[in-house]
Amino acid sequence: xxxxxxxxxxxxxxxxxxxxxxxxxxxxxxxxxxxxxxxxxxxxxxxxxxxxxxxxxxxxxxxxxxxxxxxxxxxxxxxxxxxxxxxxxxxxxxxxxxxxxxxxxxxxxxxxxxxxxxxxxxxxxxxxxxxxxxxxxxxxxxxxxxxxxxx
Length: 151
Description:
- A hairpin with a 3-residue loop joins strand 2 and strand 3.
- The chain has helices at residues 14-32, 64-80, 84-107, 121-141, and strands at 39-40, 54-56, 60-62.
- The chain has 4 helices and 3 strands, in the order H-E-E-E-H-H-H.
- The protein is mainly α.
């Protein structure tokens, strides 16, 4: 497929594809977090707070708010994947947000109202890996190629 035959606004660079795929993954996770089966303890899910008893895949603690955050992040990733500069911004900025969320998860007392998202240990390490991967992808794939010299 030549670059001219691609649909308008579709990904044309690796950084755009990375943002699109990560955005789509966030959407899938947000939806799965609202479905009994992939989400264990579904009947114990709360809107927010540390006392939500629901876990995605029986591992990652989720709440309605947590799932909404994933859905919004997914929509943002898909929307921002339309241009290389905004895809790079999504990856680096979103990755930085997830690294801050990792630190938050390490520092917050899990049994207090400050843990409103909620997060547990598997969430924390997923946030670290995801944040680091997003920043690295944004930095590596988002480099602007040099403009050819015209005579």
